[in-house]
Protein backbone atom coordinates (compact mmCIF):
# COMPACT_ATOMS: atom_id res chain seq x y z
CA UNK A 1 0.00 0.00 0.00
CA UNK A 2 1.33 3.45 -0.91
CA UNK A 3 2.29 5.90 1.85
CA UNK A 4 -0.62 8.33 2.21
CA UNK A 5 1.08 10.99 4.36
CA UNK A 6 1.72 13.28 1.39
CA UNK A 7 -1.85 13.20 0.07
CA UNK A 8 -3.70 16.53 0.11
CA UNK A 9 -7.04 15.02 -0.86
CA UNK A 10 -9.91 16.69 0.99
CA UNK A 11 -7.73 19.71 1.85
CA UNK A 12 -8.32 23.30 0.74
CA UNK A 13 -5.34 25.53 -0.03
CA UNK A 14 -4.93 29.22 -0.73
CA UNK A 15 -1.90 30.47 -2.65
CA UNK A 16 -1.09 34.20 -2.75
CA UNK A 17 0.66 35.71 -5.75
CA UNK A 18 -0.36 32.67 -7.77
CA UNK A 19 -0.74 34.31 -11.18
CA UNK A 20 2.78 33.39 -12.24
CA UNK A 21 6.18 32.12 -11.17
CA UNK A 22 6.60 30.08 -8.00
CA UNK A 23 3.01 30.72 -6.82
CA UNK A 24 1.58 29.34 -10.05
CA UNK A 25 3.77 26.23 -9.86
CA UNK A 26 2.85 25.61 -6.21
CA UNK A 27 -0.88 26.04 -6.89
CA UNK A 28 -0.69 23.43 -9.65
CA UNK A 29 1.57 21.18 -7.53
CA UNK A 30 -0.80 21.15 -4.55
CA UNK A 31 -3.65 20.31 -6.92
CA UNK A 32 -1.61 17.41 -8.30
CA UNK A 33 -1.39 16.13 -4.71
CA UNK A 34 -5.20 16.31 -4.48
CA UNK A 35 -5.97 19.69 -2.86
CA UNK A 36 -8.66 22.11 -3.92
CA UNK A 37 -6.84 25.38 -4.56
CA UNK A 38 -8.02 28.97 -4.26
CA UNK A 39 -5.79 31.09 -6.46
CA UNK A 40 -5.18 34.74 -5.60
CA UNK A 41 -3.25 37.73 -6.87
CA UNK A 42 -3.59 41.47 -7.36
CA UNK A 43 -6.32 42.95 -9.58
CA UNK A 44 -3.75 43.76 -12.27
CA UNK A 45 -2.84 40.04 -12.52
CA UNK A 46 -6.32 38.57 -12.23
CA UNK A 47 -6.53 37.32 -15.83
CA UNK A 48 -3.21 35.48 -15.43
CA UNK A 49 -4.49 34.11 -12.12
CA UNK A 50 -7.51 32.71 -13.95
CA UNK A 51 -5.08 30.83 -16.22
CA UNK A 52 -3.60 29.23 -13.08
CA UNK A 53 -7.15 28.37 -11.97
CA UNK A 54 -7.75 26.67 -15.33
CA UNK A 55 -4.54 24.62 -14.94
CA UNK A 56 -5.67 23.56 -11.44
CA UNK A 57 -9.20 22.64 -12.57
CA UNK A 58 -7.79 20.56 -15.42
CA UNK A 59 -6.41 18.27 -12.69
CA UNK A 60 -9.95 17.47 -11.52
CA UNK A 61 -10.04 19.47 -8.28
CA UNK A 62 -11.97 22.61 -7.31
CA UNK A 63 -10.49 26.04 -7.86
CA UNK A 64 -11.47 29.70 -7.96
CA UNK A 65 -9.71 33.01 -8.43
CA UNK A 66 -9.66 35.77 -5.82
CA UNK A 67 -8.39 39.32 -5.83
CA UNK A 68 -6.03 39.65 -2.87
CA UNK A 69 -3.48 42.46 -2.70
CA UNK A 70 -1.41 41.77 0.40
CA UNK A 71 -0.52 45.47 0.65
CA UNK A 72 -4.20 46.22 1.30
CA UNK A 73 -4.22 44.88 4.85
CA UNK A 74 -7.85 45.76 5.54
CA UNK A 75 -8.96 43.61 2.59
CA UNK A 76 -7.04 40.45 3.59
CA UNK A 77 -9.31 39.08 6.30
CA UNK A 78 -12.56 39.61 4.32
CA UNK A 79 -10.99 37.96 1.24
CA UNK A 80 -9.86 34.92 3.25
CA UNK A 81 -13.22 34.72 5.03
CA UNK A 82 -14.95 34.58 1.61
CA UNK A 83 -12.72 31.65 0.60
CA UNK A 84 -13.53 29.82 3.84
CA UNK A 85 -17.23 30.42 3.21
CA UNK A 86 -16.97 29.15 -0.37
CA UNK A 87 -15.06 25.94 0.45
CA UNK A 88 -16.30 25.39 4.01
CA UNK A 89 -12.72 25.20 5.32
CA UNK A 90 -9.14 26.40 4.80
CA UNK A 91 -6.34 23.97 5.58
CA UNK A 92 -3.25 25.28 3.81
CA UNK A 93 -1.91 28.78 3.17
CA UNK A 94 1.01 29.26 0.81
CA UNK A 95 2.18 32.76 1.68
CA UNK A 96 4.01 33.39 -1.59
CA UNK A 97 3.36 36.98 -2.78
CA UNK A 98 6.60 38.89 -2.77
CA UNK A 99 8.61 41.53 -4.58
CA UNK A 100 12.27 42.45 -4.98
CA UNK A 101 13.84 45.83 -5.77
CA UNK A 102 17.57 45.12 -6.15
CA UNK A 103 19.62 48.26 -5.46
CA UNK A 104 22.82 49.15 -3.56
CA UNK A 105 22.04 50.01 0.05
CA UNK A 106 23.23 53.61 -0.39
CA UNK A 107 20.59 54.13 -3.10
CA UNK A 108 17.60 52.55 -1.33
CA UNK A 109 14.70 54.99 -0.90
CA UNK A 110 12.03 54.96 1.78
CA UNK A 111 9.55 53.93 -0.93
CA UNK A 112 11.74 50.92 -1.90
CA UNK A 113 11.97 49.89 1.75
CA UNK A 114 8.24 50.25 2.42
CA UNK A 115 7.14 48.43 -0.74
CA UNK A 116 9.48 45.51 -0.06
CA UNK A 117 8.94 45.09 3.66
CA UNK A 118 5.20 45.80 3.50
CA UNK A 119 4.69 43.16 0.80
CA UNK A 120 7.13 40.47 1.89
CA UNK A 121 6.71 40.72 5.66
CA UNK A 122 3.69 42.79 6.76
CA UNK A 123 1.36 41.39 4.10
CA UNK A 124 2.60 37.87 4.80
CA UNK A 125 1.91 38.29 8.52
CA UNK A 126 -1.66 39.50 8.05
CA UNK A 127 -2.42 36.70 5.57
CA UNK A 128 -1.13 34.21 8.15
CA UNK A 129 -3.21 35.83 10.87
CA UNK A 130 -6.42 35.73 8.80
CA UNK A 131 -5.82 32.12 7.73
CA UNK A 132 -4.89 30.95 11.22
CA UNK A 133 -8.30 31.88 12.68
CA UNK A 134 -10.33 29.21 10.82
CA UNK A 135 -7.40 26.77 11.04
CA UNK A 136 -7.21 27.09 14.84
CA UNK A 137 -10.99 26.72 15.02
CA UNK A 138 -10.85 23.44 13.10
CA UNK A 139 -7.69 22.28 14.95
CA UNK A 140 -5.60 21.64 11.82
CA UNK A 141 -3.66 23.89 9.50
CA UNK A 142 -0.48 24.30 7.51
CA UNK A 143 1.03 27.73 6.92
CA UNK A 144 3.93 27.73 4.48
CA UNK A 145 5.76 31.03 4.14
CA UNK A 146 7.92 31.55 1.10
CA UNK A 147 11.20 32.93 2.37
CA UNK A 148 14.43 32.70 0.43
CA UNK A 149 17.98 31.48 0.76
CA UNK A 150 18.31 35.11 1.90
CA UNK A 151 16.28 34.19 5.00
CA UNK A 152 19.50 32.51 6.12
CA UNK A 153 22.42 34.39 4.56
CA UNK A 154 23.23 37.88 3.27
CA UNK A 155 24.34 39.29 -0.05
CA UNK A 156 25.13 42.70 -1.54
CA UNK A 157 22.60 44.83 -3.41
CA UNK A 158 19.37 43.65 -1.80
CA UNK A 159 19.22 45.05 1.76
CA UNK A 160 15.43 45.56 2.15
CA UNK A 161 14.69 42.21 0.50
CA UNK A 162 17.14 40.38 2.76
CA UNK A 163 15.81 42.14 5.85
CA UNK A 164 12.26 41.16 4.87
CA UNK A 165 13.20 37.54 4.21
CA UNK A 166 15.13 37.21 7.49
CA UNK A 167 11.96 38.64 9.03
CA UNK A 168 9.95 35.88 7.36
CA UNK A 169 12.05 33.30 9.22
CA UNK A 170 11.61 35.14 12.52
CA UNK A 171 7.86 35.32 12.00
CA UNK A 172 7.74 31.65 11.03
CA UNK A 173 9.35 30.73 14.34
CA UNK A 174 7.20 33.12 16.36
CA UNK A 175 3.94 31.94 14.81
CA UNK A 176 4.97 28.29 15.13
CA UNK A 177 5.47 28.88 18.85
CA UNK A 178 1.98 30.36 19.13
CA UNK A 179 -0.14 28.21 16.83
CA UNK A 180 1.41 24.72 16.83
CA UNK A 181 -0.34 23.86 20.13
CA UNK A 182 -3.62 24.35 18.21
CA UNK A 183 -2.67 22.00 15.38
CA UNK A 184 -1.44 24.69 13.00
CA UNK A 185 2.18 24.27 11.92
CA UNK A 186 4.09 27.21 10.48
CA UNK A 187 7.12 26.63 8.27
CA UNK A 188 9.08 28.40 5.56
CA UNK A 189 10.61 27.36 2.28
CA UNK A 190 13.84 29.06 1.27
CA UNK A 191 14.09 28.90 -2.51
CA UNK A 192 17.38 29.66 -4.17
CA UNK A 193 17.57 31.44 -7.53
CA UNK A 194 14.58 30.29 -9.55
CA UNK A 195 13.69 31.22 -13.09
CA UNK A 196 10.48 33.27 -12.83
CA UNK A 197 9.01 36.28 -14.67
CA UNK A 198 9.52 38.43 -11.55
CA UNK A 199 13.26 37.74 -11.42
CA UNK A 200 13.72 38.37 -15.13
CA UNK A 201 11.88 41.71 -14.84
CA UNK A 202 13.74 42.83 -11.70
CA UNK A 203 17.26 42.22 -12.96
CA UNK A 204 16.85 43.35 -16.56
CA UNK A 205 19.17 40.64 -17.82
CA UNK A 206 18.69 37.77 -20.22
CA UNK A 207 18.04 34.28 -18.84
CA UNK A 208 21.51 33.29 -20.16
CA UNK A 209 23.23 36.17 -18.32
CA UNK A 210 21.44 35.31 -15.08
CA UNK A 211 22.29 31.65 -15.54
CA UNK A 212 25.99 32.41 -15.96
CA UNK A 213 25.96 34.71 -12.94
CA UNK A 214 24.44 32.15 -10.58
CA UNK A 215 25.97 28.92 -11.85
CA UNK A 216 29.18 29.09 -9.80
CA UNK A 217 27.33 30.16 -6.62
CA UNK A 218 25.27 26.98 -6.55
CA UNK A 219 26.60 23.43 -6.43
CA UNK A 220 23.55 22.59 -8.53
CA UNK A 221 25.22 24.64 -11.26
CA UNK A 222 22.06 26.29 -12.56
CA UNK A 223 19.04 28.27 -11.47
CA UNK A 224 16.05 26.21 -10.51
CA UNK A 225 12.66 25.88 -12.14
CA UNK A 226 9.58 26.77 -10.02
CA UNK A 227 8.37 23.15 -10.23
CA UNK A 228 11.44 22.07 -8.24
CA UNK A 229 9.86 23.67 -5.15
CA UNK A 230 6.67 21.62 -5.35
CA UNK A 231 7.91 18.61 -3.37
CA UNK A 232 8.92 20.78 -0.40
CA UNK A 233 5.55 22.57 -0.47
CA UNK A 234 3.58 19.32 -0.58
CA UNK A 235 5.57 17.96 2.38
CA UNK A 236 5.01 21.07 4.50
CA UNK A 237 1.32 21.22 3.51
CA UNK A 238 0.65 17.56 4.22
CA UNK A 239 -0.09 15.39 7.26
CA UNK A 240 3.44 13.98 6.86
CA UNK A 241 4.98 17.18 8.30
CA UNK A 242 2.87 17.28 11.47
CA UNK A 243 5.91 17.37 13.76
CA UNK A 244 7.85 19.85 11.61
CA UNK A 245 7.22 23.43 12.67
CA UNK A 246 9.14 26.69 12.84
CA UNK A 247 11.49 25.24 10.23
CA UNK A 248 13.17 26.81 7.19
CA UNK A 249 13.40 24.21 4.45
CA UNK A 250 16.08 25.47 2.08
CA UNK A 251 15.64 24.39 -1.52
CA UNK A 252 18.50 26.44 -2.84
CA UNK A 253 20.62 24.25 -5.08
CA UNK A 254 23.24 24.25 -2.34
CA UNK A 255 23.70 28.06 -2.24
CA UNK A 256 23.93 28.10 1.57
CA UNK A 257 26.17 25.02 1.65
CA UNK A 258 29.16 27.02 0.34
P1 LIG B 1 6.98 36.70 -9.48
O1 LIG B 1 7.11 38.19 -9.47
O2 LIG B 1 7.33 35.97 -10.73
O3 LIG B 1 5.56 36.27 -8.97
C1 LIG B 1 5.05 36.83 -7.78
C2 LIG B 1 3.57 37.08 -7.89
O4 LIG B 1 3.15 37.76 -6.69
C3 LIG B 1 3.25 37.98 -9.06
O5 LIG B 1 2.07 37.59 -9.71
C4 LIG B 1 3.11 39.31 -8.38
O6 LIG B 1 2.36 40.28 -9.09
C5 LIG B 1 2.41 38.91 -7.08
N1 LIG B 1 2.43 40.00 -6.12
C6 LIG B 1 3.32 41.02 -6.01
N2 LIG B 1 2.91 41.89 -5.08
C7 LIG B 1 1.72 41.41 -4.60
C8 LIG B 1 0.79 41.88 -3.65
N3 LIG B 1 0.96 43.05 -3.03
N4 LIG B 1 -0.30 41.14 -3.40
C9 LIG B 1 -0.53 39.98 -4.06
N5 LIG B 1 0.30 39.50 -4.99
C10 LIG B 1 1.41 40.20 -5.26
O7 LIG B 1 7.93 36.21 -8.27
P2 LIG B 1 8.56 34.78 -7.94
O8 LIG B 1 7.65 33.70 -8.37
O9 LIG B 1 9.97 34.79 -8.36
O10 LIG B 1 8.58 34.85 -6.33
C11 LIG B 1 7.56 34.29 -5.51
C12 LIG B 1 8.08 34.27 -4.09
O11 LIG B 1 9.28 33.50 -4.02
C13 LIG B 1 8.42 35.65 -3.54
O12 LIG B 1 8.06 35.73 -2.18
C14 LIG B 1 9.94 35.70 -3.70
O13 LIG B 1 10.55 36.58 -2.80
C15 LIG B 1 10.30 34.25 -3.40
N6 LIG B 1 11.61 33.86 -3.91
C16 LIG B 1 11.85 33.83 -5.25
C17 LIG B 1 13.09 33.47 -5.72
C18 LIG B 1 13.41 33.44 -7.18
O14 LIG B 1 14.61 33.32 -7.53
N7 LIG B 1 12.43 33.53 -8.07
C19 LIG B 1 14.19 33.08 -4.80
C20 LIG B 1 13.81 33.15 -3.42
C21 LIG B 1 12.56 33.52 -3.00
P3 LIG B 1 3.19 41.34 -10.01
O15 LIG B 1 3.70 40.52 -11.11
O16 LIG B 1 2.19 42.33 -10.45
O17 LIG B 1 4.28 41.90 -9.13
TrEMBL record:
Its EC number is 1.1.1.100. It catalyses: a (3R)-hydroxyacyl-[ACP] + NADP(+) = a 3-oxoacyl-[ACP] + NADPH + H(+). The lineage of its organism: Eukaryota, Metazoa, Porifera, Demospongiae, Heteroscleromorpha. It is an enzyme of class 1 (oxidoreductase). Belongs to the short-chain dehydrogenases/reductases (SDR) family. Transmembrane segments: none annotated. Pfam families: adh_short_C2. This is 3-oxoacyl-[acyl-carrier-protein] reductase. GO terms for molecular function: 3-oxoacyl-[acyl-carrier-protein] reductase (NADPH) activity. InterPro entries: NAD(P)-bd_dom_sf (IPR036291), SDR (IPR050259), SDR_fam (IPR002347). It comes from Geodia barretti (Barrett's horny sponge). It comes from the Eukaryota.
Amino acid sequence: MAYSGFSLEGRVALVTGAARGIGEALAVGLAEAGADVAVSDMASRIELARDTQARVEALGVRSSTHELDVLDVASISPAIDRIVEEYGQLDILINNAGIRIPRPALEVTEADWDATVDTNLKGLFFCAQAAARPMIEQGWGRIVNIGSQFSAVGSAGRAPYIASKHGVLGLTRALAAEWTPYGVTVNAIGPGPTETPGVLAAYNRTPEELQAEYADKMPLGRRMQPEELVGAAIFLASPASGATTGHLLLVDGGWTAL
